[in-house]
Amino acid sequence: MNILNDLPKPDDLNTKAKALAILDAIYCQEWDMRYFSHNAGWAENQQMSSMRNGEGDDYFLIHAPYGCAIKGCFSESRIAAGGAFFKSVAQQIPARFAEFMAEPAFSMDQASFVLWFDEDRQVWRAAANDAPGDADDGGQAALLKWLCKGPEFYRSWAEEYYGVDVDLALVNRAFNNQPLSIAYIESLNIPIDRATLGADFEEIGFPFTA
To answer: Which of 2, 34, 91, 138 has its CA 20 to 30 A from that of 144?
Structure first.
């Protein structure tokens, strides 16, 4: 998998990140157990998506007027956290991402990879690292695979991880950013709390009806 080629462009990436977050909200009632989250009101005109697996691995994805960028931390990567790599990223990433680099919530000093979207050339770029032969991608493929693959991949993963039956039609609707109704979700015999799920829809910014 070539992440830089396979990652969607920012608008489509934002749509997919919202889909992953709302599907996790539907199939996992405990927020702390979810992999994916999305905050459509992270800051003024900014949205933030994240993934945490509870084992020290994560990514943070920012959608802002200054651009779109991703920080990832993969515990199995040999890329040193906080040392030469972090300093190198600061020298490589365009200056407009200064706010992204300085955000405390993203723990940038623990990054094992940093990507940003080059608006001029319409391509994703990655900060270079010192791994021998660039064999270590910092965990890009491992942590960003959900953002590159389709509904079938998410369903297969979620069924195994959450131990539930996942409706493929529902997943397809989410990936296509089609409005979802809470009544429809209930009709699939998915145990939900209406008020909690409604709040999740609002935070994620995913279109829904009662």
So the answer is: 91
pTM of this structure? 0.94
Which tokens go with 185?
Answer: 């979700």
Q: What is the dihedral of CA 95, 66, 101, 36, to 10 degrees?
A: -150
Q: Give the separation between CA 41 and CA 69, rounded to whole angstroms.
A: 17
Distance CA 92, CA 183 (A): 48
Structure confidence at residue 130 as a pLDDT band (50, 70, 90):
low
* Distance of alpha carbon 182 from alpha carbon 198, whole angstroms: 8
- Which amino acid makes up residue 188? L
Q: Among candidates 134, 131, 161, which has minimal Cα distance to 146?
A: 161
Q: Residue 81: its pLDDT value, please?
A: 55
Least confident window among 30-34, 77-81, 90-94, 154-158? 77-81
Amino acid identity of residue 62, one-letter, is I
The tokens describing 45, both together, are 């005109």
